[in-house]
Specification:
single chain; 171 residues; mainly alpha; 0% strand; flat
């Protein structure tokens, strides 16, 4: 995916968020109090798209007299096209089935538990932070560790987590 396509995807995603935030469409996806965050995210994405186009336009003008980067080009990874998936999800996925599943799940949970079934924010933030740190460390350490070690480590961790879940389910 080249820079122009990246900026087009960023612009479309940002414009979709701005459109959803300025209408009541955002209520299908998030709660009412999150309108400012939806609008801010849309504005940041549109600004990033405009900045990318501006930067590429300036770079093309600077390099116009040169001989096309001395005959070599830099290719972006093909996996970058996965950036299109959130945009397609916003456009194609109807949130009604998702909300029906969510309501049904909360109804079943409320039958099984007495008290609030609100999410545990501390646990959610801890898991998010753990995922962020783990992803960063994994990306940094992966080239320096042998593949066999990584497979054994991940298999052991997954098995241990499964054992903990099984023990807790049996109690």
């Amino acid at each position: 995916m080249n820079r122009q396509a990246q900026s087009a995807v960023l612009f479309l995603l940002g414009a979709s968020l701005l459109h959803a935030g300025t209408t009541d469409l955002y209520l299908r996806y998030v709660k009412q109090g999150l309108r400012p965050l939806v609008l801010a995210a849309g504005a940041v994405l549109v600004a990033a798209a405009i900045a990318t186009v501006w930067y590429e336009w300036g770079r093309a003008r600077r390099h116009k007299g040169r001989d096309a980067d001395e005959g070599h080009t830099h290719h972006e990874p093909r996996v970058a096209w996965l950036l299109v998936l959130p945009l397609l999800a916003l456009i194609l996925v109807d949130p009604l089935p998702l909300s029906v599943v969510d309501y049904a799940g909360h109804a079943l949970l409320s039958l099984a538990h007495s008290g609030s079934i609100a999410p545990d924010w501390f646990l959610g933030l801890a898991c998010g932070l753990g995922g962020l740190v783990g992803g960063y460390l994994g990306a940094r350490l992966q080239p320096h560790l042998p593949e066999t070690f990584l497979r054994l480590l991940l298999g052991t961790l997954a098995s241990a987590l499964g054992a903990v879940y099984a023990i807790n389910a049996l109690r």
